[in-house]
């Protein structure tokens, strides 16, 4: 590698380097910060992300391949990285007070989040199965630890252990698929794989390899049949981490899935049928099981499974609109889901766990504004216009119908009608019940800002989707 | 168009709703809501003043790009049919505010905000010239209506609100798929005028017809997807019932007129007999159910099903008299049933019972009130001289021209109407004063008079001189008929 190529590679991956370096510095600084000064860590972490974001946007002008084809900084990656920055910053803001209440505000918490961010960024930019693997592992290793951060609580530990074991198995399956691909094609680079296959594209070996890779990735986005870890992990993890995992690593998983599926080799193997089945089953399971949940976090876990299913429909549709629809879906989902999680996190104060839906009864009576925000997020998650959630679903449906998959679109909307039930049930609890006790939400300025920002996104993208749509469409075609 | 009049009409209540959120005093909230709705009504009168009845073209049109990448525009406009319903919606807006003046005594602000939001969305539905925009308005209505029923409703409000929400949502989602399919078949546009000019293959038309049918039939509601209506009506507060009966139910029929007939003419003609039969079933079945009710609101709710059957019957006769009668009947039903729900609401505020068995001899205690009740009951059963007579006569003559058996069913429905309405009136107003002995019943006061009198005026106006109303819709209906018959073949 010449010096010029090395420089280009470093330039292309500058945002990742910034985040990793920042994380390392914070790890050291964290030991020097005195007790009671922890807010410094929050702002320093936010600053690191913002610097990386600035770098990403400044370098966004052109496509920058790097590290001999293992990595690329293109518009597709930029779009996802912006989503990751958004998610991470909002998680930091939500964590400030929550971490204090739960007593988990040590520097490692923030460092691990930053490292997870760098892993997600690598996933979005990776163009080689091995660099995908590196990003994937970096992300999940951090989230394993973060899941178990409530060390005193049994369910947090249980969740972390479950996550590690199942995650390890799925990684193994993924790697096995990669090794098969390497054996059959002699390369792990996504764009070289197709050219390397000369014979029958439906070679059973290749198909097996693709299925293994799909299985590994499906685990990361929490789709059926590899969804079993989601409810337990989401319930056991600190709520801020649940919020983070439900949007960040999930979006990163979809970034990889899209990159892999855009690959002509995979596209030729009729894998969309598998994806369509996964999408339908995932959405059905998420929607139906969520109907009977009493725990808010568990309900949101199943809701996130259902949403992963809906986004999967966009993957099944494929094509430029299909890819763009998934990307837009994930962006919008980040806003509305972080919004509703922001509420749950805020409610965790004193003896109030904020996790039991029934405990929100009559919330609208004492907190009109916050209840209205909840109503907004919930109707958006249910996909009712004029919120952004509707447009996200609408565009996926457009992509499906465009490709002639009308039946899939019908299945998708019928299942989203089921899903609507459990969202509006929460609206019913907060608006149509009498309160049983007083509420004392931990409403700090940082939480306020987060809620305002997510609400603005939820309603703003719903009313003026044109700009965001164009952004996703431009990013979808790579370039 | 220099002044975006329709945008003003649609967004005045929305801006009003936003402004209300910052007001703390309940009385100020009430007066402001009233002011906003009256302003909106005035704008609507101004719109009708400038309305040209000689053309079927869309008027007061506004078009702005909204999501150019998908061909979505923000396009508003009205023709004769929609103008009539914009007027009806704006009229009932302030009547609903008056009807909720004392009936809603908790969370007044939230209620008025929901009511105004609802009005903005309903007006938007009738004005939209872009299918996507239409769908956004159509579906967004679920949010305020769910809240209105669920928060301020009766004892079974939660169940009723859920049922309403899920029925309508499930119906609308099939419509959404239909809209997207139409988008790709119609040249990647959501513009309603462009889509009307497309000619789709019969196969596609058939599928779309049924996709649309599910959505519109739930809203109308047609038998057998009517079961949400009695629950929603009975549990909703008075204003909610008025909105549901007077405007929301019209949207299903409006959907048929705006989309099914002009865009899917061949399928419409092909399946018109099915629709006629479904309508006839609704007329008779709704009437029979109304006959058996003891709850005043339930009685009116089931009579709504019967009367809306008459509307869809008129529409699917696909001849001029049937269509004009059907549309006029939509307006009439809005006025009359709105008035009936208002009357029931007024008496319920005094006695807190809706059971017909509890009433009797009301005429002695509240003569003015019973006079109004008599007028609206007579109007509902289509006595000559009232509004429904004109509409029903047109529908019946259209129905007999289209299908004898269906016409006979419609007549049977009218007879049933006379039976349950007169029976209700007899038990409530005449006879020994059962409830008047125990309660001192106050007659109609000035505020209530202001709400109920305009509706009575419309009942008699249309009954005696329907010409101005028929003139508004005339050109549009004739054009609609050429659209159906031109492409669908003469029936």
Automatic annotation (TrEMBL), chain A:
Answer whether the UniProt record assigns the keyword Glycosyltransferase to this protein.
Answer: no
EC code(s) of this entry: 7.1.1.-
Give its localization. Answer: Cell membrane; Endomembrane system; Membrane
The record places domain NADH:quinone oxidoreductase/Mrp antiporter transmembrane at 126-416
Keyword vocabulary terms for this entry = Cell membrane, Membrane, NAD, Quinone, Translocase, Transmembrane, Transmembrane helix, Transport, Ubiquinone
Q: Which InterPro entries match?
A: NADH-Q_OxRdtase_suN/2, ND/Mrp_TM
A Gene Ontology molecular-function term? Answer: NADH dehydrogenase (quinone) (non-electrogenic) activity
Alphabetized Pfam families for the sequence: Proton_antipo_M
What processes in GO biological process is this protein linked to? Answer: ATP synthesis coupled electron transport
Q: Which reaction does it catalyse?
A: a quinone + NADH + 5 H(+)(in) = a quinol + NAD(+) + 4 H(+)(out)
Positions of transmembrane segments: 6-28, 40-61, 76-95, 107-126, 132-151, 163-185, 205-229, 241-262, 268-292, 299-320, 326-348, 369-392, 404-424
User: How the protein sits in the membrane?
Assistant: Multi-pass membrane protein
Lineage top rank: taxon: Bacteria
Keyword Transport in the entry? The reply is yes
Q: What class of enzyme is it?
A: translocase
Listed GO CC annotations: endomembrane system; plasma membrane
> What's this protein's family per the entry?
Belongs to the complex I subunit 2 family.
What does this protein do, in the record's words?
Answer: NDH-1 shuttles electrons from NADH, via FMN and iron-sulfur (Fe-S) centers, to quinones in the respiratory chain. The immediate electron acceptor for the enzyme in this species is believed to be ubiquinone. Couples the redox reaction to proton translocation (for every two electrons transferred, four hydrogen ions are translocated across the cytoplasmic membrane), and thus conserves the redox energy in a proton gradient.
Complex and partners = NDH-1 is composed of 14 different subunits. Subunits NuoA, H, J, K, L, M, N constitute the membrane sector of the complex.
The protein, known as: NADH-quinone oxidoreductase subunit N
What species was this sequence derived from?
Answer: Mesorhizobium tamadayense
High-level lineage: Bacteria, Pseudomonadati, Pseudomonadota, Alphaproteobacteria, Hyphomicrobiales
TrEMBL record, chain B:
Q: Where in the cell is it found?
A: Endomembrane system; Membrane
Keyword Oxidoreductase on this protein?
yes
* Cellular-component GO terms for this entry: endomembrane system; membrane
Classify the protein's membrane topology as the record does: Multi-pass membrane protein
Q: Note whether tRNA processing occurs among the keywords.
A: no
Q: What is the top EC class of this enzyme, as a single word? A: oxidoreductase
User: Which family is this protein grouped under?
Assistant: Belongs to the complex I subunit 4 family.
PANTHER family reported for this sequence: NADH-UBIQUINONE OXIDOREDUCTASE CHAIN 4 (PTHR43507)
User: Protein name, please?
Assistant: NADH-quinone oxidoreductase subunit M
């Amino acid at each position: 590698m010449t010096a010029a190529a090395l420089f280009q590679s470093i330039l292309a991956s500058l945002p990742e380097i910034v985040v990793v370096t920042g994380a390392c510095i914070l790890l050291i600084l964290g030991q020097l910060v005195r007790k009671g000064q922890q807010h410094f860590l929050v702002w320093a972490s936010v600053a690191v992300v913002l610097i990386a974001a600035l770098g990403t946007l400044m370098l966004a002008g052109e496509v920058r391949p790097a590290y001999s084809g293992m990595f690329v900084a293109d518009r597709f990656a930029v779009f996802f990285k912006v989503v990751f920055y958004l998610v991470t910053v909002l998680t930091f803001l939500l964590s400030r007070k929550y971490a204090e209440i739960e007593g988990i505000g040590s520097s490692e918490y923030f460092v691990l989040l930053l490292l997870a961010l760098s892993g997600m960024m690598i996933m979005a930019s990776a163009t080689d199965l091995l660099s995908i693997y590196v990003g994937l592992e970096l992300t999940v290793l951090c989230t394993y630890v973060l899941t178990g951060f409530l060390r005193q609580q049994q369910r947090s530990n249980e969740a972390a252990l479950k996550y590690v074991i199942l995650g390890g198995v799925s990684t193994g399956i993924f790697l096995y698929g990669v090794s098969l691909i390497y054996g059959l094609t002699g390369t792990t680079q996504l764009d070289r794989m197709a050219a390397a296959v000369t014979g029958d594209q439906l070679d059973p070996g290749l198909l097996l390899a693709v299925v293994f890779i799909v299985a590994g990735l499906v685990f990361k986005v929490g789709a059926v049949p590899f969804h079993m870890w989601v409810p337990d992990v989401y319930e056991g993890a600190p709520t801020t981490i649940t919020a983070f995992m439900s949007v960040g690593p999930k979006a990163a998983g979809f970034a990889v899935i899209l990159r892999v599926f855009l690959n002509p080799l995979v596209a030729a193997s009729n894998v969309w049928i598998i994806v369509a089945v996964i999408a339908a089953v995932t959405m059905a399971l998420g929607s139906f099981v969520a109907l009977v949940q009493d725990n808010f976090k568990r309900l949101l876990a199943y809701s996130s499974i259902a949403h992963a299913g809906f986004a999967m429909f966009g993957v099944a549709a494929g094509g430029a609109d299909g890819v763009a629809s998934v990307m837009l879906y994930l962006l919008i989902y980040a806003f509305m889901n972080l919004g509703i999680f922001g509420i749950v996190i805020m409610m965790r104060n004193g003896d109030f766990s904020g996790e039991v839906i029934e405990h929100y009864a009559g919330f609208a009576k004492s907190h009109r504004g916050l209840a209205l925000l909840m109503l907004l997020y919930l109707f958006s998650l249910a996909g009712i216009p004029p919120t952004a959630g509707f447009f996200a679903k609408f565009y996926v449906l457009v992509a499906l119908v465009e490709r002639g998959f009308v039946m899939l679109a019908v299945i998708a909307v019928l299942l989203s009608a089921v899903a609507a039930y459990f969202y509006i049930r929460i609206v019913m609890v907060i608006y149509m019940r009498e309160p049983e006790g007083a509420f004392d939400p931990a409403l700090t300025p940082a939480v306020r800002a987060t809620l305002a920002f997510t609400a603005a996104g939820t309603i703003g993208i719903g009313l003026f989707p044109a700009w965001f749509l164009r952004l996703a469409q431009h990013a979808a075609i790579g370039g | 168009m220099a002044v975006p009049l329709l945008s003003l009409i649609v967004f005045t209540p929305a801006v009003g709703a936003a402004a209300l959120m910052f007001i703390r005093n309940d009385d100020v909230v009430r007066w402001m809501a009233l002011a906003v709705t009256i302003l909106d009504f005035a704008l609507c009168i101004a719109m009708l003043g400038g309305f040209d009845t000689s053309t079927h073209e869309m008027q007061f049109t506004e078009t702005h790009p909204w999501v150019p990448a998908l061909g979505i525009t923000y396009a508003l406009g009205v023709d004769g049919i929609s103008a009539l319903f914009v007027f009806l919606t704006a009229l009932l807006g302030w009547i609903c505010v008056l009807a909720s003046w004392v009936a809603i005594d908790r969370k007044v602000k939230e209620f008025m905000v929901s009511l105004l939001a609802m009005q903005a969305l309903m007006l938007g539905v009738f004005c939209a010239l872009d299918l996507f925009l239409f769908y956004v308005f159509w579906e967004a209505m679920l949010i305020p209506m769910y809240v209105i029923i669920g928060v301020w409703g009766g004892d079974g409000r939660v169940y009723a609100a859920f049922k309403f929400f899920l029925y309508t949502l499930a119906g609308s989602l099939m419509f959404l798929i239909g809209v997207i399919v139409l988008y790709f078949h119609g040249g990647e546009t959501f513009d309603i005028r462009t889509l009307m000019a497309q000619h789709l293959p019969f196969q596609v038309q058939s599928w779309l017809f049924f996709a649309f049918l599910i959505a519109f039939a739930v809203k109308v509601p047609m038998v057998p997807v009517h079961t949400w209506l009695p629950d929603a009506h009975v549990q909703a507060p008075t204003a909610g019932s008025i909105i549901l009966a007077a405007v929301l139910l019209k949207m299903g029929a409006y959907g048929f007129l705006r989309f099914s007939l002009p865009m899917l003419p061949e399928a419409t003609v092909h399946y018109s007999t099915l629709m006629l039969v479904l309508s006839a079933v609704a007329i008779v079945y709704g009437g029979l159910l109304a006959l058996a009710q003891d709850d005043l609101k339930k009685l009116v709710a089931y009579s709504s099903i019967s009367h809306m059957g008459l509307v869809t019957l008129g529409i699917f006769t696909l001849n001029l008299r049937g269509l004009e009668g059907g549309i006029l009947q939509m307006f009439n039903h809005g006025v009359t049933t709105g008035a009936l729900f208002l009357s029931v609401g007024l008496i319920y505020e005094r006695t807190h019972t809706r059971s017909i068995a509890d009433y009797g001899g009301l005429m002695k205690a509240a003569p003015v009130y019973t006079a109004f009740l008599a007028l609206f009951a007579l109007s509902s059963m289509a006595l000559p001289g009232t509004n429904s007579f004109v509409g029903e006569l047109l529908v019946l003559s259209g129905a007999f021209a289209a299908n004898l058996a269906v016409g006979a069913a419609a007549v049977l429905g009218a007879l049933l109407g006379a039976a349950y309405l007169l029976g209700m009136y007899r038990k409530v107003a005449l006879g020994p004063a059962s409830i008047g002995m125990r309660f001192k019943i106050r007659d109609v006061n000035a505020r209530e008079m202001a709400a109920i009198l305009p509706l009575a005026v419309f009942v008699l106006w249309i009954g005696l001189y329907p010409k101005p109303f028929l003139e508004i819709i005339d050109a549009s209906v004739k054009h609609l008929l050429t659209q159906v018959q031109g492409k669908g073949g003469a029936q």
